[in-house]
Specification:
158 residues; alpha/beta; four-stranded parallel β-sheet; three-stranded antiparallel β-sheet; 7 helices
C-alpha cells in the first residue's frame, strides 16, 4: 500500500487544488508534483502571476502558494498502484475531507487536477464547496498544449 502526503494548507487557505495521488517521482522525492515534466508548478505560477514559481526550492514554492491562500492535497490517502498512471490505481482510500474544515476554515473552492481527481467533485460540492475540474498537469495529458491548459487553469481565479 502506498501512502500520500499531508495537506499543504493554512487557516487562511481559500482555494485547494486536489490531485489524485502522488506519482512515483513525487513519492521518491516526498514532494507534490516532483516529476520534472509535470506542468503543475508552471501552471500554478501562471495563475498566481509568479512565472518563476517552478524554479524556486520546494519549500519556497509551498510558502508562495500558501501566501496566496492556495493549498495542495490529493483526493486519495493511500492506494495500490504500479507506475504513476491514475488508471493503475487499485484499492483506493480517500483522504479525510471532513477534517479540512478545522485546518482550513476559510476554504471555499476546491479545484481538481484532472478527471480522475474530478470524480470527487460531486461529493466535495455536496459538502458546500465550489468545485472546478481542471485539465491534468501530468505529462501523460498531452491532448492540450501548455497554453491551452493555462487558459483553463486561470478559471481558478473566477
Amino acid at each position: 500500500m502506498l501512502h500520500g502526503f499531508p495537506p499543504v494548507v493554512a487557516t487562511h487557505t481559500h482555494t485547494l487544488i486536489l490531485g489524485s495521488f502522488p506519482g512515483e517521482a513525487s513519492l521518491v522525492a516526498t514532494q507534490y508534483y516532483a516529476h520534472p515534466r509535470n506542468q503543475f508548478w508552471r501552471l500554478l505560477g501562471g495563475v498566481l502571476g509568479e512565472p518563476l514559481l517552478h524554479e524556486l526550492t520546494y519549500d519556497a514554492r509551498l510558502e508562495c502558494v500558501l501566501s496566496y491562500g492556495f493549498g495542495i492535497w490529493d483526493v486519495l490517502a493511500a492506494c495500490h498502484r504500479e507506475g504513476s498512471l491514475d488508471a493503475a490505481i487499485r484499492h483506493a482510500q480517500p483522504n479525510d475531507f471532513a477534517s479540512l474544515r478545522e485546518h482550513a476554515p476559510d476554504l471555499r473552492k476546491v479545484c481538481f487536477n484532472g478527471k480522475t481527481a474530478g470524480r470527487f467533485a460531486p461529493v466535495i460540492g455536496a459538502a458546500g464547496y465550489d468545485t472546478l475540474v481542471l485539465p491534468s498537469s501530468s505529462p501523460a495529458n498531452a491532448m492540450l498544449s501548455f497554453d491551452q491548459k493555462l487558459l483553463r487553469w486561470r478559471d481558478i481565479l473566477a
